[in-house]
């Protein structure tokens, strides 16, 4: 069966609730991003996205709470102490976080993510999450993106009003980071055992990562019950070891997004691409990211939205691609269809 016919078969299987196996994922990853087969893949993923999402586009917002020189020294992260980019600590006050969250929800954010370094403090994070939840009304999802955790921490998060955890087994884990894959997997398992929902992107992806590595991380996300997945490209942050490395082409990023959409099928309604890409949105993504504050992909604290990509631009991008989105002054989820 040629690639085009085979991709149409995969689309039908995804609509029927069937999962793709490793062999199929690797075959899709091996397609030339510039080929007609890749274009067919992107169009199939775009059609599947409309069904899986009910034609809803969504915005994931993230507030980086703190940055400081970090001894973990992940090669792709601006915070690594060894790189000398972050020379002093910077931390948002609770009032600043609440004000930012209020503005994001007012502007239509579906998720509000509190992102921390490994050193913020778990109890402080839960306390802040409860303050945000109490001060900012709306049907948005409260997310945390923090360090490793076990069953006790997961229970505390739920009690604090958190309902989604962002955590990933990252590409190059144990080589580009100082964490072992098993450490990351332990947290994924703890979330999977709980009522909390998991968000897990395939990240940070660069041309240096093999198809086998990408397939493994994608399958890890799905096997651990991720309800939001997608792809985050590695950003070349000047001054980090990865700062001079080639980055993914937009076409390859869109291809990986489309593959994630087909793998998620109807079980993973929300597929995210970061940084935002119009082509990736056309090829299956329905979620884009607006972030600010401490951003590990930037060499300085971001007082405004990272790279200028704000809520208005995010909504416009999704709308131009044909998605219905929350509007400013409209609390997300009022239609009863706020996923995950």
TrEMBL record:
Keyword Iron-sulfur in annotation: yes
Keywords, sorted A to Z: Iron, Iron-sulfur, Metal-binding, S-adenosyl-L-methionine
Domain of life of the organism encoding this protein: Bacteria
SUPFAM superfamilies according to UniProt: Radical SAM enzymes (SSF102114)
Cofactor: [4Fe-4S] cluster
Domain Radical SAM core per the UniProt entry, residue ranges: 53-267
Sample GO molecular function, one term: metal ion binding
Keyword Manganese: no
Protein name: Radical SAM core domain-containing protein
Native source organism of the sequence: Candidatus Desulfovibrio intestinavium
